[in-house]
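In the laboratory, one determines a bound structure by crystallizing the protein with its ligand and collecting diffraction data. In a computational setting the workflow is compressed into a single prediction: the sequence and the ligand go in, and a structural description comes out. We illustrate the idea with copper (II) ion.
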Amino acid sequence: MKPLAILALAATALTLTGCEKNLGAGQQLNVVGGYIQMGATADRPAVGYFTVEGGPRDVQLVAVTSDLAQRVEMHESVKENGVMTMKPLLSADVPAKGKLQFRQGGKHLMIWNINGAAVRAGKLPMAFVFTNNNNERILFDLPIKAAPGEASPEAAKK
Ligand SMILES: [Cu+2]
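The predicted complex, in structure-token form:
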């Protein structure tokens, strides 16, 4: 009886290890990093950047929200007639096993009126909303960086 039970346990342990290996191989949709740069003055919006790692299927990021900011918008910087401008972004593709990057000079978040307590804490809790699983929400705290000198984040992009 006893040797059999031990064998069964060993088999279970092996199976579990196999599962964990798969999960660790970057198959999970996840927000993996990023930061928020405060605006140069209080009336300027902050700008947010982050990276999403794709899961087993193609999905779309359709919104980023925060209870501790008045407004969060997804934007994309584009060049029109030689001039950099930005447009609201309704969704962004996250390719399966690929990456979606919001970064300087491209897609970015604009965040208005971040709660003072969040600024003092140095991070803003955010929810990233995707099209899979009935709008899966992934919660992630973006660290907050102080304003860069007197140059505004938008001007610094040019
Ligand atoms: Cu913008």
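Residues 27-147 form a domain with the Immunoglobulin-like fold (CATH 2.60.40.1890). Keep in mind that any predicted model is a hypothesis to be tested, not a measurement.
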